[in-house]
Amino acid sequence: VITWRAKSGELSDGLELTLPVYAYSSPEVVATAGQVPAGEARVETVVLPEVLDATQGELTLQIDPSLAASMKDGLKYLEAYPYDCIEQTVSRFLPNVLTYRALKQLGIANTELEARLPQYVGVGLQRLYALQHYDGGWGWWLSDDSQPFLSAYALLGMYQAQQAGFAVDSSSLERASAYLAGALDSDELTIQYSANARAFVLYVLGVVGKGDLGRTVALYDKRDALDIYGKAYLVLSLRALQPDEVSRVNTLVTEIKNLAILSATGAHWEELDTDYWTMSTDTRTTAIVLSALLKVNASDPLLPGVVRWLMVARKEGHWETTQETAWSVMALTDFMVATGELEADYGYRVGLNTRLLGQGVVTSQDVGATRKLVVQVGDLLRDEA
Fold it and tell me: Rounded CA gap, 324 and 333, in Å?
């Protein structure tokens, strides 16, 4: 509060002003993630900075009874994404469809997802029909030339929607499959020019029942041209086309695992180069590798570390791009199915220093419900951990 006074002879005046004083501070966010196996406990130590504003900030603990609960924010991020190119149109409904199928197979009801999914799938399919070119493929937008990679992604989305019980135009599926089969003979998908896109097209054609073993084996013989995620697609293709022939798959898995980067936050993979045409990122590569390794050995001890790394890589419940988020959600859905973690039946307790913060029981009926516990930074210990 500042006061001014002026006096001259018998005359005087004054003014009082209240000026706000702002103490500017820089927010800092530190996070970790992990899994607590049955019958075990985890202790996380929190050390506050020496200088801080005790009136601002909080400790937030998010308890996800399953990966299904922790993926909700990622699914909502895809649904609400504001743009509508072909990739984003497919990413908006494909992960939701696979999550829905997985929950249905496991007998887990998700009324919220079941209520909104038909609208998202219906709108997405109608947009794909409208933007499909005369040659059966898709570009980024209607005016763009057809691209094999994007067309394969669109075909994958349509086929998975059909497998989940949604009505999909069969002629649109056939035209897309024919376009991709023809693209394998074009200059666009040569091993030297675009080996990764070729691996993805072969994978999708295998998923829809039109696999090409000869071309897949030929690509295996020239796999040095592939990035890590391209090799992961090749694992998925060979596993589906030749389930009894394991030598090539085992070789690919060994090569992929030898490139794993292990750290305190888990295991992940990093590409030497970025393939922008296929929207490649290290996070997306890690998710695709997780799906491939699950198909080979669901009990691989490396997998929990990969899951942890993907969960730590999130920001505000989702990953950085729509491709990262879509493939991460799909891979984690595969992990849920393989591990049977949705069959929940356990209790939990959370303590902070000497007091109980929260406790509860989790069953298969509420395995998708997230719990959040919040403590203000002013209530945390300042002089000790």
Answer: 14
**Which distant-in-sequence residues (6+ apart) come within 8 Å of 27 by Cβ?**
56, 57
Q: What are phi and psi of 61, to 5 degrees?
A: -115, 120
CA 3/CA 17 separation, integer angstroms: 6
Separation of alpha carbons 26 and 49, rounded Å: 12
**Strand 266-268 relative to strand 261-263, pairing:** antiparallel
Residue type, 369: A
Joined together, the tokens standing for residue 207 give: 């998923």
pLDDT of residue 109: 67
Nearest to 92 by CA among 100, 101, 83: 83
pLDDT in tens, 315-327: 877 899 989 999 9
The answer to whether residues 227 and 199 touch, using CB atoms and an 8 Å cutoff, is no
Q: How far apart are CA 221 and CA 16, in angstroms?
A: 84
Helix residue ranges per DSSP H, the chain? 67-70, 72-79, 86-105, 111-131, 148-163, 170-183, 191-207, 213-221, 228-241, 247-257, 282-296, 303-312, 322-339
Dihedrals φ, ψ of 298, to 5°?
A: -70, -15
The pTM assigned to this predicted structure is: 0.82
Whole-angstrom Cα distance, residue 147 to residue 187?
A: 12
Query: CB under 8 Å, gap of 24 or more: what pairs does 270-275 form?
Result: 271/227, 271/228, 271/229, 272/227, 273/227, 275/196, 275/227
pLDDT of residue 114: 77
- C-alpha torsion sign, points 189, 147, 332, 31: positive
